[in-house]
Amino acid sequence: MIRVAIISEPGIAGVKRHVVDLLHHLDVAEFELLFLYGLSRKDSQYESEIAHARNRGIRCRDVGLVRAISPRADALSAFKIWLELRAFRPQVVHVHSSKAGFLGRLAAKLALCGAKVIYSPHALACLDSRFYWWLERGAAMATDVMVAVSPSEAEDILRLRLIPPHRVRCIPVCIRDESEYPAVCSKQRGALVVACGRICRQKQPLLFFEAARAILAKSPGVRFRWIGDYGDDREAEEVRRLRDTDPLAAKVEISGWTPAPDAEIAAAQVFCMTSRYESFGYVTADAMMMGVPVVGVRTSGTRDLVIDGQTGLLCGDSAVEIANSVERLLGDPVLRDHLSAAARQQVLSNFSRPRMLGAISNLYREVAAK
Fold first, then answer.
1. Which CATH superfamily is domain 2-174+352-369 in?
2. pLDDT at 40 (0 to 100)
3. Shortest CA distance to 7 belongs to which of 87, 80, 72, 114?
4. pLDDT tens-digit profile of 144-200?
5. One CATH from 3.40.50.2000, 3.40.50.300, 3.40.190.10, 3.30.70.20 for 178-350
6. What is residue 188's predicted lDDT score, i.e. its pLDDT?
7. Is 295 helix (H, G, I), strand (E, B) or coil?
8. How does DSSP assign 209-238, residue by residue?
9. Where are the CATH 3.40.50.2000 domain residues in the chain?
10. pLDDT above 90 (res 130)
11. Pairwise CA distance, residues 279 & 277, whole Å
12. Largest Cα–Cα separation, the chain
């Protein structure tokens, strides 16, 4: 058997979803798995998902990983990871996201166990910070393979010169099985436009709120909803101020965080993805699967899923363009139906779970053989 250690901190959103797919579906007859994690960020389902992994025979250890940079907590987590790796002696270490990725790579090399290290960043924090770029450049010395989950993320990795090109792979993540999605339902009465994610700089929520203001000034009957809660950065504060001072922006509903937003997304006529960058964009793919046409900003991750004019509409980094595209879709049900049908077929054809698991398994075999 090939011994694989998987290390991840976020117990929410896309990182968790990908890691749980691996823990629940990798072949435990071929791979002996150790999962190291933290519970500082978790949704209501995470602990039961970890319990399911344990029931499959996977060793699961909480090593206290936290999101914020904390020298004391991070040093303790790195030490716990080091101890676990020294005991497990993996052939492959697969680390996910920036915090677990950095500490896991450091501990793997210090453990001197000879493991090959795979890193999946799941959105590149260094796109926003020169400090993180230097950290990633340093950690690349402890990285054997860097895995992008979309072609555009691979392009970003190469453009940022994080690691030599021959050590970059692109393995797209997967959607859920078709049966796990709600049936394409009849839409709510009236026009509903939704976006989903944390209200923070990466998701660029101001674009959504400004586009909503422009549309509401002309069409007050359109409803806008952001599915997610406030982050703690400057853009979240700007959204709060805008809603406090502008009556139109205040009409945009904020539902708060929910681990299962399917029903809210499926009820919409249009889904908006305004992020500055994504690694893949699970909620975009989910909207496409549920028959909701997407208006997206032409950025990493989104532009791989949404083909402009064929499976959705892509815009520049402009609230005016987003507002125009949303109004175009709201006013043209035939176009909405056409884009929705093509989008659903594209996602079904390209992002299956067997395809993703096969590619990851092959990568584990390849690096273990080295």
1. Glycogen Phosphorylase B; (3.40.50.2000)
2. 85
3. 80
4. 999 999 999 999 999 988 889 999 999 999 988 877 787 665 555 569 999 999 999
5. 3.40.50.2000
6. 53
7. strand
8. HHHHHHHHHH-TT-EEEEES-B-SSHHHHH
9. 2-174+352-369, 178-350
10. no
11. 7
12. 64
Using CA atoms, how far residue 44 sits from 11, 21, 66, 293, in Å, is 9, 17, 17, 29
pLDDT tens string 352-369: 999 999 999 999 999 999
The pTM assigned to this predicted structure is: 0.88
**How far apart, in whole angstroms, are the C-alpha atoms of residue 308 and residue 299?**
12
Contacts of 116 (CB under 8 A, 6+ apart): 91, 92, 93, 144, 145, 367, 368, 370
Main-chain phi, psi angles of 181, to 5 degrees: -95, 150
- The CA-atom distances, in angstroms, between 143 and each of 95, 162, 236, 272 are 10, 10, 34, 35
- The per-residue pLDDT for range 320-331, each reduced to its tens digit, is 999 999 999 999
Q: CB-based burial of residue 62 (10 Å sphere; 0-12 exposed, 13-18 middle, 19+ buried)?
A: middle
State both tokens at 345: 């077929």
Instruction: For CA atoms 69, 71, 73, 74, give the dihedral sign.
Output: positive
